[in-house]
Design brief:
By secondary structure, the chain is mostly helical. 75% of the residues lie in helices and 3% in strands. It folds into 2 domains: 115 residues, no CATH class; 112 residues, no CATH class. The longest helix is centred in the N-terminal third of the chain and has 28 residues. 43% of the residues are buried.
Length: 228
């Protein structure tokens, strides 16, 4: 296939993947099989894997930017008009995290597809956000602990531990798979611990609910400066 055809396939697969994930979650919410808050976090985790589709199928930065740019608009409309219960119902109307997420993706796409960073470093950042932030919320909610209020957000010990564990595992997997500087387990564990710890601190201390921006950009920046 030509590069243009592969890019086109990537666009089709991307939208099918994201809308399919949202559609299944919406169906489960409507059947009362999932709470809206749980569905939002499952979508958050699942959609982060779009980055792997982009890495595998997209060559042109404009093509790779199309999905994130369009979802900035789509997600803003969803919040404004409460269009999808799996993404919006029961949520605090001031929570624009679903818009901040594709903003981060758009920034990282243009850094990675325009050669400022390797695309796999963007993958570390995006999947740390997806798995770390998503599991932190799910585990914190499941634990039932009241947690501590920091900068207007409530953080639990269980959720913070889940954030670190998920960030650690994502970073370890990408480091072993892609980073020739750290090809063996023990050095890669050190990298994963440093990045996971930094991501957890940033998530813990970020004010105003903008961790969907601060976490991935901080992770990408730290990895690029310290470990490439």
């Amino acid at each position: 296939m030509s590069p243009a055809a592969v890019d086109g396939l990537g666009i089709v697969v991307s939208y099918a993947f994201v809308f399919g994930f949202i559609g299944v979650a919406t169906h489960l919410v409507r059947r009362n099989a999932l709470r809206p808050s749980t569905a939002r976090k499952i979508i958050h985790i699942g959609v982060a894997h779009w980055w792997l589709i982009a890495m595998a199928t997209m060559n042109d930065p404009w093509v790779a930017s199309l999905g994130p740019a369009s979802f900035i608009v789509i997600n803003a409309l969803v919040i404004r008009f409460r269009l999808l219960p799996a993404m919006d119902e029961g949520a605090d109307g001031r929570n624009w995290g679903t818009v901040y997420f594709p903003v981060s993706l758009l920034v990282l796409v243009n850094l990675c597809w325009r050669s400022a960073l390797p695309p796999w470093v963007g993958g570390v950042a995006v999947l740390v956000l997806g798995w770390g932030d998503g599991l932190a919320a799910l585990v914190g909610e499941k634990s039932g602990a009241s947690g501590m209020r920091i900068w207007g957000g409530r953080k639990s010990a269980a959720g913070t531990a889940a954030m670190f564990a998920a960030s650690f595992m994502v970073t370890l997997a990408f480091t072993l798979a892609y980073n020739a500087r750290f090809p063996t387990l023990l050095p890669a564990i050190g990298v994963a611990a440093a990045v996971g710890g930094a991501a957890t601190v940033v998530e813990l201390l970020t004010p105003w609910g903008i961790d969907n921006i601060t976490v991935p950009l901080a992770v990408a920046g730290l990895y690029a400066v310290a470990f490439l």
